[in-house]
């Protein structure tokens, strides 16, 4: 009976981590949409909703600690619980980055750099997180390498976008230099934060690979 309860707790932990990831990805999507449309109401919902993600993190942290302390898991179960703990940490940080995007949403002048496709970069980073979490859900080790490959593409796109912004800043003839600098600063921060979302997705994939195959190749 005790063993059945233990397995039920492990399954519940996985379900709760997946639920947290769904909420985080939804908030990130809303933040990106708010950034593109300058929707102050949606941006504020992302910002004020961060407490929910923080509370989920704290609750799941206690669940992980409880399983480690009371059940003293070994081998695969230990890797699963430890990896889940690391994954919720990455998810909480992605939630923080979504808040950053929400704060940028109504401040930057989106018309200044029409060639910069923040929405596309954001969609790709969300896809990375979702792919990583599907690998976690189904113990899919090969899929973790797909996330690492996606990150290489995101890094290259972010680097290219940054070059476009910096080049346009150098070449601008706008008389309102301060306003241009503020917009450039926010846009570069946005690009940086989306790139960090991708980094956290790789972290999730790395912990999943370790969890499933006891392989630390992607951990760095």
Describe this structure in words.
- The chain has 220 residues and is an all-alpha fold.
- It has a single domain (2-213), classed as Methane Monooxygenase Hydroxylase, Chain G, domain 1 (Up-down Bundle), CATH 1.20.58.220.
- Helix content is 85%, strand content 0%.
- It has helices at residues 2-37, 40-48, 50-71, 75-105, 118-138, 141-171, 177-213.
- The mean pLDDT is 90.
Mean pLDDT score, rounded? 90
Shape: elongated
Gyration radius from CA atoms, angstroms: 19 Å
Structural class: mainly alpha
Please identify which CATH superfamily we are dealing with: Phosphate transport system protein phou homolog 2, domain 2
- Our measurement of the CA-to-CA distance between the termini, rounded to an integer number of angstroms, reads 40 Å
CATH architecture: Up-down Bundle
Helix content: over 70%
In N-to-C order, the SSE pattern is: HHHHHHH
Report the top-level CATH class.
Mainly Alpha
**Quaternary organization:** single chain
The structural domain count equals 1
Instruction: Note poorly predicted spans.
Output: none
What kind of sheet is the major sheet? none
Strand coverage percent: under 5%
Number of helices: 7
Number of strands: 0
Instruction: Write down the CATH topology.
Output: Methane Monooxygenase Hydroxylase, Chain G, domain 1
């Amino acid at each position: 009976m005790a063993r059945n309860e233990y397995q039920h707790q492990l399954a519940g932990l996985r379900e709760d981590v997946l639920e947290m990831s769904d909420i985080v990805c939804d908030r990130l999507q809303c933040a990106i949409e708010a950034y593109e449309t300058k929707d102050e109401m949606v941006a504020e919902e992302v910002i004020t909703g961060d407490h929910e993600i923080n509370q989920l993190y704290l609750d799941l942290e206690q669940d992980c600690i409880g399983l480690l302390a009371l059940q003293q898991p070994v081998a695969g179960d230990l890797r699963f619980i430890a990896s889940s703990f690391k994954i919720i940490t990455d998810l909480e940080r992605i939630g923080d980055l979504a808040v950053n995007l929400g704060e940028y949403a109504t401040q930057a002048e989106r018309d200044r750099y029409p060639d910069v496709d923040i929405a596309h970069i954001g969609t790709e980073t969300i896809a990375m997180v979702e792919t990583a979490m599907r690998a976690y859900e189904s113990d899919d080790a090969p899929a973790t390498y797909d996330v690492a490959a996606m990150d290489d593409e995101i890094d290259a796109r972010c680097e290219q976008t940054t070059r476009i912004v910096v080049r346009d800043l150098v070449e601008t003839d706008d008389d309102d230099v301060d306003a241009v600098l503020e917009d450039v600063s926010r846009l570069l921060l946005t690009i940086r934060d989306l790139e960090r979302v991708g980094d956290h997705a790789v972290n999730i994939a790395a912990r999943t690979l370790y969890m499933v195959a006891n392989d630390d190749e992607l951990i760095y």
